[in-house]
Amino acid sequence: MRLLLVEDDADVAETLVAFLERDGFVVDLAPTLEIAQDAITDNAFDLIVLDRLLPDGDGVTLITYAERHKLPQRFLLLTALSDLDERLKGLELGADDYLAKPFEPRELLVRIRNVLRREIKVTSEIRQFGPLSFDVAGSAFFIDGVPLSLRRTEALVLEALMARPGVLVPRETLESRVYGYDKFVNANSLESQISRLRKNLSEKTSRVKIQAIRGVGYQLAEE
């Protein structure tokens, strides 16, 4: 399970990331709303753990941002704003749960697991690029209607490319999609994924290529 922690307090963030990763979660960190918006636009998360008081605004605006851009998400709010009106505001805007600071990390873990049991309502969407199609809800790829089997990391790269078919996707976006938004990535790791993905595509069709713009990024191209 992959979580996004939106928290600007470095000490709190470090503690929570270590605690949650020990329990088996993959955790990405966003210290501002702007970074969090970029993260949920370019990446898929199972849950957003969201602070209310951020340097560039109220965290609940991320909920409305996700709704406006049709980015289905689960949200668990963490905040020092614990009075009833503030709790209701977050829940009415679409948060799945609300935990007031200070809190016991074990309670946070239980609440995360409870929220993860709830289904995310995903609108059916099929993205098409030449013979290549992507079922967004099912996270499945097809070439001329035939399923395309990929490794998880290759699928993540292709999913990011299909989010903007035919448009240049910066390598930083692809790296964050595959390895995590705030993780150090070896310079050759992405190239290895691209190479395997190209091979898999070429075995199924000659009509879709992955073009590289050296030092900038990659894009899908149709022959």
UniProtKB/TrEMBL annotation:
UniProt-listed PROSITE patterns = OMPR_PHOB, RESPONSE_REGULATORY
Matches recorded under Pfam families: Response_reg, Trans_reg_C
Name the DNA-binding segment ranges: 124-222
Q: Which residues form the Response regulatory domain?
A: 2-116
Please list which residues make up the signal peptide: none
Segments traversing the membrane: none
Modified-residue entries (4-aspartylphosphate), positions = 51
Top-level taxon: Bacteria
Enumerate the UniProt keywords alphabetically: DNA-binding, Phosphoprotein
Which residue ranges does the record assign to the OmpR/PhoB-type domain?
Answer: 124-222
Known SUPFAM superfamilies for this protein? CheY-like
How is this protein named in the record? Response regulator transcription factor
